[in-house]
Amino acid sequence: MKFLLKVFQIKSHLDPLIADGRLKPTDPDNPQNYWQRFVTAEYNLLTLGEIILDSCKEPRTCSEIAERAGINIDHMKEYIQPLIDSGKLKMTIPAIPTNTNQRFVTAGSEAVIISEEVLLEY
User: Fold this and answer.
1) CA distance 17 to 5
2) SS3 string of the chain?
3) pLDDT tops 50 at residue 5
4) How high is the pLDDT of residue 1?
5) Domains of the chain (ranges plus CATH)?
6) What are the φ and ψ backbone dihedral angles of 69, each rounded to 5 degrees?
7) CA 51 to CA 62: how far, in whole Å?
8) Which backbone phi and psi does 88 adopt, to 5 degrees?
9) pLDDT digits (tens, 9 = 90+) for 32-73
10) What is the number of alpha carbons within 13 Å of residue 79 lying toward its C-beta?
11) Shortest CA distance to 92 belongs to which of 78, 109, 113, 75?
12) Half-sphere exposure of 60 (CA within 13 A, CB side)
């Protein structure tokens, strides 16, 4: 679970907590960012890609991934395609990307990937 605090008027109250290491910035490369958020140091932030990859350790449909990641299914291609292009995520039926039975799985999983040769046999 993430706890985020907006930084507006309360920056002076946050500085001691940051100095003590009890808070860490979400954008450490840009400390002057007006929209900078802070989280408690014991929590780790996950990117949306990491959440998708974590949920795809077993084959999942787009709707299952969207539900687990808490995103709109209409925007799933924007999130999934870069992971497929980078080789981190694989389709279970790569020969037919729009197949209704299409599932997505992380690259290291032992899920069954149906090749084009297998599809031609049917």
Assistant:
1) 12
2) CCCCEECCCCHHHHHHHHHHCCEEECCCCCCCCCCCEEEECCCCCCCHHHHHHHHCCCCECHHHHHHHHCCCHHHHHHHHHHHHHCCCEEECCCCCCCCCCCCEEECCCCCCCCCHHHHHHC
3) no
4) 45
5) 5-40 (no CATH), 48-121 (1.10.10.10)
6) -85, -15
7) 13
8) -85, -25
9) 766 666 666 665 556 788 888 988 999 999 999 988 888 888
10) 20
11) 113
12) 22
In sequence order, what are the residues at sequence separation of 6 or more whose Cβ sits closer than 8 angstroms to the Cβ of residue 92? 59, 101, 102, 103, 104, 105, 111, 112, 113, 114
- Which structure tokens are listed for 12? 């002076």
Structure tokens at 75: 């925007």
What pLDDT does 116 receive? Answer: 58
Q: pLDDT tens digits for 72-115?
A: 888 888 889 999 999 999 999 888 888 888 999 998 877 666 66
Q: At what angle do helices 48-55 and 62-69 cross, to 10 degrees?
A: 130
Please identify which residue in the block is written with the tokens 């890609």: 49
Distance CA 23, CA 50 (A): 22
Cα separation, 113 vs 21, whole angstroms: 45
